[in-house]
Amino acid sequence: MRKGLLKEESILTIPNTFAFMLHPIDLADLSRKFPLADRVPKRLLEQVVKYMPPVKASRITGVKSDYGEAEGWFVGCTLTSEQMVNLPAPVVLKKIIRTGRLAEKLGAKILGLGAMTAVVGDAGITVAKELDIAVTTGNSYTVYTALEGVKKAAEMMEIDISNAEVLVLGATGAIGAIAARMMARECRYLTLVARNDSKLDGLAQQILRETGLVCRITKDTRKALRQADIVIAVTSSSQTVIEPEDLKSGAIVCDVARPRDVSHRVAEIRDDVLVIEGGLVEVPGDVDFGLNFGYPPGLALACMAETMMLALEGRFEDYTLGRELTLEQVEEIGLIAEKHGFRLAGFRSFERPVPEEKILAIKKRAQEKRLELLHA
Question: Are residues 64 and 113 in the same domain?
Fold first, then answer.
């Protein structure tokens, strides 16, 4: 096996190499990859997955911009989302690090942590310390594209951001504060929700100094949600905080939190509300991922894209780690993306793509409900 690995390494001629870590969302994902898994009892399959070694899922070629080329691999950490949440953090981290070492052996110079592998423990810091290659969670570009997505979704839903009621839940966290500061440049009605009064006051004062906007601050989440046209949810709650009955008809909710802030019941019950998690990104070049992970050809998640663009840029250094993001970092990654031709291409919700026709159907249903209320 090692001989085969050396053979593959020897044909790599592009110096900008990367790897991105995937994991199965649930056992059904494993069944799609390994059809025989359907015949294994769930409890037994969970134990098998727990002890499986990391896998090289595919090779990625064709990532190319006007400024360079990059090649890489998808590497698989064989734990489901549920296992990553419920198993002891040291056990999960050990498996993530082991998968990172596979990326090193393949020849990657930077590793992106995907999905729950970017959340466990201290959000990549320990993993980076244990590996000899650079590590990023991709969260900077995830935030950047989430806000880009909000603007694009608002346009499609015919919501004027400058006059919309914008709400940031979890506004005093690292991501929430950045989202609030960036949205304050776009809107005139901004409400901030968090539990810490002094931090809320401090953030509101910072936004006033930076933009001249006077924000409303509150701890009454339910009331704020019922009034909001656009919600950016980034709390650190371990449970969902947004239920179907909380939302205004026609609202857009961008859920950047992990675990999720939005209950899955919202998608099931509210056909007049748009929930998005972040954007799908068009990757420059004739990219071949070597793996079908559910999105149209040439499109990737923002966290994947951050890893690729850092490789193209030759920035083989730890980038987005831990839970403290900076506005400067988010803005910088946006500029790097623009330089190399990464572009927002679509939406996803509850880990699945959201086609344009669904957004138009949600808009139509919201308009119908507003008319029903007017004639009630």
Answer: yes
Q: Which helix (H) or strand (E) holds 6?
A: helix 2-10
Of the listed ranges 41-45, 86-90, 249-253, the one predicted with least confidence: 41-45
Among residues 255, 305, 294, 245, the alpha carbon closest in space to that of 276 is found at 255
Q: Look at residue 35 and tell me whether its pLDDT is greater than 80.
A: no
Buried b (16+ CB within 10 A) or exposed e, 261-294: bbbeebbeebebbbbbbbbbbbbbbebebeeebe
Token pair 């949440």 in the structure block, residue = 85
User: Quick one: 355 and 324 in the same domain?
Assistant: no
Q: What is the pLDDT of residue 141?
A: 94
Beta strands 278-282 and 343-349 are antiparallel
Same domain, 100 and 238: no
Total number of domains in the chain: 2
Q: Please, which residues have CB within 8 angstroms of residue 203's CB and are 6 or more apart in sequence?
A: 171, 172, 177, 180, 181, 192, 194, 215
Residue 47: give the domain boundaries.
Answer: 2-140+280-347
Q: How confident is the model at residue 39 (pLDDT cuts 50, 70, 90)?
A: low
Nearest Cα residue to 346 out of 333, 338, 355, 337: 355
| Nearest in space to 264 (alpha carbons), one of 251, 250, 278, 275 | 275
Lowest-confidence pick of 41-50, 129-138, 159-168: 41-50
Separation between Cα atoms, residue 22 and residue 274, nearest integer Å:
27
Q: Which of 90, 92, 94, 53 is nearest to 75 (CA)?
A: 53
Question: CB under 8 Å to 282, separation ≥6 — which residues?
Answer: 298, 299, 342, 343, 344, 345
Could you give the percent of the chain with pLDDT greater than 90?
70
**CA angle, residues 95, 73, 344, in degrees to nearest 5:** 105
**Residue at token pair 């839903």:** 157
- Which pLDDT tens digit goes with each residue over 294-321? 788 999 989 999 999 999 999 999 999 9
Alpha carbon distance 352, 355 (integer Å)? 10
Confidence of residue 121 (pLDDT cuts 50, 70, 90): confident
Q: What is the CATH number of the domain that holds 243?
A: 3.40.50.720
Q: 321 with 364, same domain? A: no
CA-to-CA distance for 267 and 350, rounded, in angstroms?
A: 8
* pLDDT (tens digit per residue) in 83-107: 888 899 999 999 999 999 999 999 9
Same domain, 60 and 149: no
